[in-house]
Amino acid sequence: MRLNDFLMKALFFRPEIPIDLCTSAKRFLATFQMKRSINQAGLDNLNARVQEDLNYLMLPSKPWVPRQTYNGKSVRDVIIIGAGMCGIAVLAQLQLAGIDNSIAYDQADQGLEGPWVTSARMKSLRSPKALTGPALGLPSLTFRAWYTAQFGAEAWEQLGKIPKEQWMEYLVWYRHTLELPIENGVRLLDIRAASDELVEVCLQGETGGRKEYARHLVLATGRSGLGGAYVPAFLDGLAPSFWAHGADEINFTGLKGKDVAVIGAGATAMDNAGTALEHGAASISLLIRRKEMPQINKMTGIGSQGVVHGIRDLPDAWKWKFFDYVAKAQTPPPRSSTLRVSRYPNAHFYLDCAVTGVRTDGNRVVVETNQVPFEVDFVIAATGFRNDFFGRPEFSSIAPYIKVWGDGVFTSDMGMAHKFLIDSPYLGETFEFLEKEPGTCSILSRIHCFNDAAMLSHGKLSGDIPAVSTGADRLMRGIAASLFNADREIQFKALQKYSTPELAGDEWVDSTPNLESQNKTVS
Ligand SMILES: Cc1cc2nc3c(=O)[nH]c(=O)nc-3n(C[C@H](O)[C@H](O)[C@H](O)COP(=O)(O)OP(=O)(O)OC[C@H]3O[C@@H](n4cnc5c(N)ncnc54)[C@H](O)[C@@H]3O)c2cc1C
What we know:
The relative contact order is 0.12. Helix 2 crosses helix 4, helix 3 packs across helix 13 and helix 6 runs parallel beside helix 10. The radius of gyration is 27 Å and the shape is elongated. Among the domains are: about 140 residues, no CATH class; about 110 residues, 3-Layer(bba) Sandwich (FAD/NAD(P)-binding domain). It starts with a helix and ends with a helix. The strands form 3 sheets. Strands 1, 2, 3, 4, 5, 6, 7 and 16 form an 8-stranded mixed sheet that branches. A 5-stranded parallel sheet has the order 8-15-9-10-11, covered by helices on one side. By secondary structure, the chain is α/β, with parallel strands linked by helices. The N terminus is likely disordered. The site of flavin-adenine dinucleotide has 29 residues, from helix 3, strand 3 and strand 5.
């Protein structure tokens, strides 16, 4: 897709952008293109620098995995589902390691992967701008390099937080500069075992359905992980015209002049509340179950290479202890997002206000709480995501066999039984699923869960920006070892067959024949 198409699509993806914004969008496009053409030389230089860095490091490594076929069809070494930040970081890492028969598929169009220009409603990233994210240890692949190449070092110094649209552009550039094999508009429908060692992947593309085969499958399917949106039971019977999940497409223009209740106090709650207010909502009631707003971002506070590399090796009880503590403390919304809401006089924060039920009254919704009932026009549930696999049809064939922390790993003496932690998959060393009952679904050992749901087993290596390169590296190493081990006979035959001499035989003289005469002289 050309850049123009991508930008137009990105701008008009959300139905809440009314058509009369078309002119401003075109103006934005024109400005953007002008900026781009001015800075194209900088990007060209950076692209050359990336190539030089790779060259110095002798990357990509030479391809080394023997090709396979199954029923006459070629087999991929690795198929990755999801070409968001995590998917492209893994794909890049595999390509650089010489596992080049790999591909990523994403149901979204190019440039619309992940939340950044679709469901994300914040202005900028929460993370500090200098994080190296998916750069895989290469300075020229960082956001900083990309930004500075176009706008200069001074602009970098002046930049506060990274605008979310720019982060998306950076990810698009990353994919192009590394020439990653990605096919967009392809959705995973089902996963099955073709054999003990081969995963059958059912895909739906623009031209119809197809089956592909892979030796390893990576699920880089994002924050909604494996389960999709978490919706509290009290919303079950409420008609969709009265409510939405915080990650849904929402017609914010339609909320002009309306009273809106937002359930939750996290970043998503603030971003939705802020967007509704900016679209002219009459009032926003933030219904917050907690008695106090969380104020300290605990896990970020202790961020270190120790945490990045150490969580995996902790005993299970300690892993639980860390994430139980973090879950109880909760992550505060960013300060800027909170101020974006609180500066409106018609925004109200209600603490210790747990929702107990909802019902309709004519055109209005009555939200019952432990305090007073709130009568509103619309409810936004900023209630997060689920980790159980039963929320998404594409995982239904494997879901019953996957071992989760609730399958006897968690015991009540470890801490509080948080549902999303109990439902988390209990993963192996390479993010692979393990079987609930050994021997019931051995193909799980070839399916790797590289998304947010891996947090309890591996730490935050497959969901957030800070440690995604380490996660991609860990996953690549495990897959490389597994492929080599599985192919050991072929690899050994290659060892035997290899016959290119390093010595021609004329570099030395054999002195052995002289040994006898030397021996005689001595005696
Ligand atoms: C609003 C928001 C703001 C965030 N801000 C920050 C931040 O500031 N700092 C930070 O460190 N982290 C942040 N995160 C967390 C994290 O960095 C993002 O969620 C990031 O997008 C994770 O990348 P990912 O590749 O795991 O998932 P995604 O970027 O969501 O990519 C997953 C991809 O999988 C595709 N997919 C899913 N299912 C299928 C299927 N069946 N078939 C085909 N394709 C499929 C999707 O289309 C999607 O493109 C934020 C998250 C959100 C939601």
